Amino acid sequence: MRAAWYSRNGGPEVLQIVERDLRAPGPGEVRVRVVLSGVNPSDTRARRHTPVGVTGRIPHQDGAGFVDAVGAGVAGICTGDRVWLWEAAKRNEQGTAQEFVIVPAEHAVPLPTHVSMETGAALGVPVLTAHALLTRGSGSPTLRPGSLASSVVVVRGASGAVGHAALQLAAWAGARCIAITGSQTLDSALHAGAAQAVDRTDPDLVERVRAVGSADIVLTPDPSSTIGEDIQLLTPGGSLVVYASAGSDAVSVPIFEAMRANVAVHFAYVYTVTRAAKAQAVEDLSLALQAGALSVGADHGLPVRPFPLEAIAAAHRAVDDDQRGKVVIQISDLDGRTSGLIAAHTAAT
C-alpha cells in the first residue's frame, strides 16, 4: 500500500511516498481504508520539530474512511462501517496519510451516513480541541443542547478549523456566539453559527461586542496580543480560554483588571487532555453529528482544500502558510479508487 513517510525533521520536502506492507489488525484494533486524511498545524509542527523514531513517521492524526478489517475482541463496529479517526498516530507514529491505517477500535468512531467524509476528516484535533475549550470555559465536563443556554461565547480566530468548530459546537449547545475575525471572513463566521461577526481590526471592537452582550467565555489563539481586550469583553466571573500562541509565548496580564473582574484564565491542549475527558468529548461530538450540527465546506463557513497524496508536500505548505480552509489529503474515493474527488475538484476550480 502507498503511504506518505518521513525519516527526519524539516520542511515539506522531507515527505516521501513509499510502499508499505499491509498487515492485519491485532486484538482490540480495526483497520480502516482511508478516504481522506486531515492535515492540522500540529501535524506540520511535528514534521518540523518532533523527534522521529528509527522507523520514521507516517503523518496526520485525523481522517475518515471505511472499516476494512476488525481484530479479535472488537464489538460494536463492523467491516464496511463509515468512521472518523482521531489520534491515529499518537501511539506508534503511523498516521492517516496512508491507504490503510490500524488504530485502537475506540479511535474509529461511527460517522453517520448524512455526514460527509470531508466533515469526518475535519473532526479529530480541531473539534476535540473546541470541545475542551468550551467545557473548560463553562466548568461543565459535557456539552449538550441547552448546556450553554443564556451564555455568550466570543470566538477569536473564527476562520480557522478550531474556531469554526467552536462556533458550531457552542451554537448547538445553545450559546449566543460572537466571532472576531478578519474582514474577508465575516460572512463565513455567520455561516458557521455566529450571531454576529466583528472585524478584528475594528477600533470599536469592545463596544461592538458588548452591544451584543458581555462574554461568559472568550476563546483566543493569540493571548499575547489580545488579552487586554479579552478581559474587557468578559462579564465578571467569566473565563478566558487559550488554545494557541500565535504571537509571543510571553503574555503581559493586566492583573488588576483581571482581579477586579474576577476572571479565570484557562489553557487547553488536546494531546494532554485526559482519556476520560476525550471519551466524553467523543460521546458529545457523536450527538452533535447526529443532529447535523457539525459540517465543513464553503456553505458552512470553512472551505475544504483537497490534495492528492502525491501532493502532500504542497498540502503541508498550505498549512504552514496559514492558507484559509480545511486541508485534506485524498487517499481514495468512496469506491476505493484514488482519482475521483481530486479530478472533480480540479474540474470545478
From TrEMBL:
Matches recorded under InterPro entries: ADH-like_C, ADH-like_N, ER, GroES-like_sf, NAD(P)-bd_dom_sf, Zinc-ADH_QOR/CCCR
Domain of life, per lineage: Bacteria
Record GO terms (molecular function): oxidoreductase activity
Residues in Enoyl reductase (ER) domain copies: 10-329
SMART domains: PKS_ER (SM00829)
Record key words, sorted: NADP
Pfam families with a match to the protein in the record: ADH_N, ADH_zinc_N
Descriptive protein name: NADPH2:quinone reductase
Species the sequence originates in: Microbacterium saccharophilum
